[in-house]
Design brief:
Layout lengths: L1 H10 L15 E7 L2 H9 L4 E9 L15 E8 L6 H9 L9 E2 L2 E2 L5 E5 L2 H18 L6 E4 L3 E3 L7 H4 L1 H11 L1 H9 L3
Parallel strand pairs: 6-7
Antiparallel strand pairs: 1-3, 1-6, 2-3, 2-8, 4-5
């Protein structure tokens, strides 16, 4: 399914291929996909990703904290090498690791801070994100709640949230299994 999606986007003229070595300066992208621990974890293993940092974005409050981030979404800032992956591949990877149909959060994390969004920095990113969102809507034959929003200031979360799944594997796996994350995503995406 991903291959067909990327082929369809390429046919529409969107740049999807890996960038040339001359463009290999690192780039960033910001995604909100519910609990930032899970989003950070699934991006850290994606090809071409250099780092994934948990944090907050989308709200007006300066210096948000976990205890007080009203108006912000839990988000992850992904630093990637465009010579090894593309923005489109990252957006596609994001959608395939969340439930894009849930308007109230993700899996067992509900509430405004857990809603999903792709934060776009420019017109090309907006076009790419909207095209993939439209393809996901067609694939799932469902209303997509994930928003495509203008980039906003990204505020890194507290140190204890960074690399949470790596530093606390038993606790993270208990959270992931307890939430039924894998089971839920399998229902949404199946073999697609």
């Amino acid at each position: 399914m991903k291959t067909r999606l990327l082929a369809a986007l390429a046919a529409s003229g969107l740049a999807l291929a890996s960038a040339s070595p001359a463009q290999s300066t690192l780039k960033t992208a910001v995604f909100a996909g519910g609990c930032f621990w899970s989003v950070e974890k699934f991006f850290e293993s994606a090809p071409g990703v250099v780092s994934a940092v948990s944090g907050y974005s989308g709200g007006g409050m300066r210096n948000p904290t976990y205890q007080n981030h009203q108006g912000h979404l839990e988000a992850v800032k992904v630093t990637y090498d465009p010579a090894k992956t593309s923005y489109a591949k990252l957006v596609d990877h994001f959608f395939h690791n969340i439930d894009p149909t849930d308007p109230n959060g993700q899996i067992c994390d509900k509430g405004p801070a857990y809603r999903t969004a792709v934060f776009v920095a420019n017109g090309q990113e907006r076009q790419t994100a909207q095209a993939i969102r439209a393809q996901v809507q067609k694939t799932l034959n469902a209303r997509i709640a994930t928003e495509v929003r203008p980039a906003a200031t990204f505020w890194p979360a507290e140190a204890y949230h960074q690399d949470f799944a790596k530093k606390n594997p038993v606790r993270y796996e208990g959270y992931r299994i307890g939430c039924g994350r894998d089971r839920h995503l399998k229902v949404i995406w199946g073999g697609r």
